[in-house]
Amino acid sequence: MNMQEIAIKAKDASIKLSALSGEMKNRALENVAKKLQERKNEIIEANREDLLRSEKENLAAPLLKRLKFDESKIADVIDGIKSLISLPDPVGKTISSTELDEGLELYRVTCPIGVIGIIFESRPDALVQISTLCLKSGNSVLLKGGSEARETNRILAKIIEDATIEAGMPQGWISQIETRSDVSEMLKMDGYIDLIIPRGSNEFVRHIMNNSKIPVMGHADGICHCYVEEDADIDMAVKIVTDSKTQYVAVCNAAETLLVNEKIAGDFLPAVKQQLDKKGVEIRGCEKVQGIIDTKAATMDDWATEYLDYILSVKIVKNMDEAIEHINRYGSGHTDAIITKDKNKAASFLSLVDSGNVFWNCSTRFSDGFRYGFGAEVGISTSKIHARGPVGLDGLIIYKYKLIGNGHIVDDYSTHVKTFKHKKTHKNFPI
Amino acid sequence: MNMQEIAIKAKDASIKLSALSGEMKNRALENVAKKLQERKNEIIEANREDLLRSEKENLAAPLLKRLKFDESKIADVIDGIKSLISLPDPVGKTISSTELDEGLELYRVTCPIGVIGIIFESRPDALVQISTLCLKSGNSVLLKGGSEARETNRILAKIIEDATIEAGMPQGWISQIETRSDVSEMLKMDGYIDLIIPRGSNEFVRHIMNNSKIPVMGHADGICHCYVEEDADIDMAVKIVTDSKTQYVAVCNAAETLLVNEKIAGDFLPAVKQQLDKKGVEIRGCEKVQGIIDTKAATMDDWATEYLDYILSVKIVKNMDEAIEHINRYGSGHTDAIITKDKNKAASFLSLVDSGNVFWNCSTRFSDGFRYGFGAEVGISTSKIHARGPVGLDGLIIYKYKLIGNGHIVDDYSTHVKTFKHKKTHKNFPI
């Protein structure tokens, strides 16, 4: 099949999928869990091939680690599927209901989005998580995984497809695509694909965002900030900044820039430097920072750079307003934290910083679907519509309006034979 | 100011606007209502200029009618503002709350989207409705109205700007742009503008959708269907089809195609033809239709055409599945209705038709923000994410995650010193 045929099949399947009951979808998920368990040796064998090939190709050690998909990883994804099964069906929930007039009832009811195209990095567990999230939410999915994980992804997609079709899911609801040219084709399928979720390098995500008419949910940069207000508890601030920067540097929710109120800088900077030095963090400071601690010089570029490394840019600001302005200018709308004892200042910061995740007195590293308790996430969004921050099941859901009448026509209302009641009811969609 | 300066000012203003209380915004809306009343003669005078010029330029009569903005229209928009004031503030509502761990509380809280660019057709009341909806929801707005209404739009935008700035709204939250080249510039401002809502001709909306990286909410086509099932009440079906087609033909929610189950076609088609003939509707039928009633022949193009005129394409289908397939292939995801006595068939149709508005036994013409009881609408969306169908205040709202801690760091959880509770609470955001 070519890309268009795959997309058309996915669209057709999505219509059928949207009408399936939660029980049907859960049975399919149960079968996936069962088959993953039964066929785990095949998976491990395929993964061994990927690991061997990637080692030969000198894939970096951290990537090799992410690529590894062993018995314990398989157990993890099976656990994930089981907790997904325990969640309520997100489809068919009545969000609101209005009696427009006697016998004319409007319901806003949740439904799947349709067809989701997902492009993701090396970890094979992402394939299982994402496709099961799509199934639970009733969406068809087109998957493009990293080529390092080619064999593992193939067997995983095959097992999921077989197990779900066997359990009555429609043919074509899940497809794997493998080549870059297929991805280019996919980005043109705005007639069939409703949403693209890219997970990969910044350049790659930006490339996707710039090259498709299909809506894209995701994030390119993660330029996260910590701001230390003048009244901050210095020990707490040191702890939070160190965790935000160093707990795991290669991820989007790691802090890249530290902003410090000038009134606390003299006390705070030497203290935080001591901890950051221990972790091997290179500090790039503005001129004022360099007057207090010994650091490299930060340039304008540093404020707009996501290092994803043991590097932190540091700037002294006059007050919180300047910090907020800096964050809204140079940040990426991902995650930003303030450390302060002052509740009103915190409230103001959380309101005025225009980011999907805004934190008071805790580490930026918390912005993550698992830590937020979503079970699994399809990604983190920095867009301003539809869904922001970590996106779980409900980012894959939308709604439609269902109107039930009994021969009602608009002419009766425009000629004032009848008038609207618009009475809010609290009823579930009845049919 | 050039377009970029306008957009930057709007972005800066949106940050301030997002933190204003509902009372502040309502006071500004009250002042708008007051000033529109006080300065109504200026408005009527400006509108007279537009009407005179447009008459000279031979603007079509229906468009002249929409352009007219007299005392009663002014009273209408003032009423609209008053009902908007009575609505609760959509910003700052806690959607969900979770205790991640002791002292670490996550809140999902509504907030404005940011900067909205709106391009709309001739009716000047749209300017007032849209800008007051944006104000109530805390969004900055860039407005481009139709050139026919130039003078009316100028005075209206000026009054709204003056009245709101006087009431303490931030400078730059509202700007009017007037030229086509400014629109082209606006579409490039994806760094500052978060959402574009175009309201105009199909070609125009499609042009916007194809020429901006900014998310676009709206609809190009409105190819709406009525499907008459075999068991339909024929009188009811005739009434609904006639209303859907003829109640107002020049609008997106008018029916363009009628699908009829073959088992009822012999009885139904002559009956509906009689009514449609009375209204002067040209019928274009498939071959089977032509075997029952005397009509022009429909071509393949007819199924994909939005006539916006007294023309209806009619097709006989074998069963509901074929109707649903036709609608999902040729429809525009706007509004589609089934006429049937069978509850199960209705439920299935409403579930399987992939449109924002799906109706049982009532006219397609009901899909409208006013009829739905939203008070006002910014437009109707056929996109699959963020908002579908008629979009009122809540389509201008998104959310952010606010996390409150007390020195919490992720390292404690990854080293298993602490574990997450993920306890759903039902608390409002406390600060």
Q: Gist?
A:
Two copies of one chain form a homodimer. Chain A is of the alpha/beta class and 431 residues long. Chain A has helices at residues 3-18, 22-38, 40-56, 61-67, 71-86, 124-136, 150-166, 180-187, 202-210, 234-246, 262-278, 287-292, 300-303, 320-330, 343-352, 411-414, and strands at 94-101, 104-112, 115-119, 140-144, 174-176, 195-198, 224-228, 255-261, 282-285, 296-297, 311-317, 335-339, 357-362, 379-381, 389-391, 397-408, 423-425.
General description of the model:
- Chains A, B: It comes from Pseudobacteroides cellulosolvens ATCC 35603 = DSM 2933.
- Chains A, B: It is found in: Cytoplasm.
- Chains A, B: This is Gamma-glutamyl phosphate reductase.
- Two copies of one chain form a homodimer.
- Chain A has helices at 3-18, 22-38, 40-56, 61-67, 71-86, 124-136, 150-166, 180-187, 202-210, 234-246, 262-278, 287-292, 300-303, 320-330, 343-352, 411-414; strands at residues 94-101, 104-112, 115-119, 140-144, 174-176, 195-198, 224-228, 255-261, 282-285, 296-297, 311-317, 335-339, 357-362, 379-381, 389-391, 397-408, 423-425.
- Chain A is α/β, with parallel strands linked by helices and 431 residues long.
- Chain A has two domains: 3-218 and 383-396, Aldehyde Dehydrogenase, Chain A, domain 1 (3-Layer(aba) Sandwich), CATH 3.40.605.10; 224-366, Aldehyde Dehydrogenase, Chain A, domain 2, CATH 3.40.309.
- Chain A is globular and about 75 Å long.
- The mean pLDDT of chain A is 95.
- At the A-B interface, α1, β2, α10, α15 and β13 of A face α1, β2, α10, α15 and β13 of B.
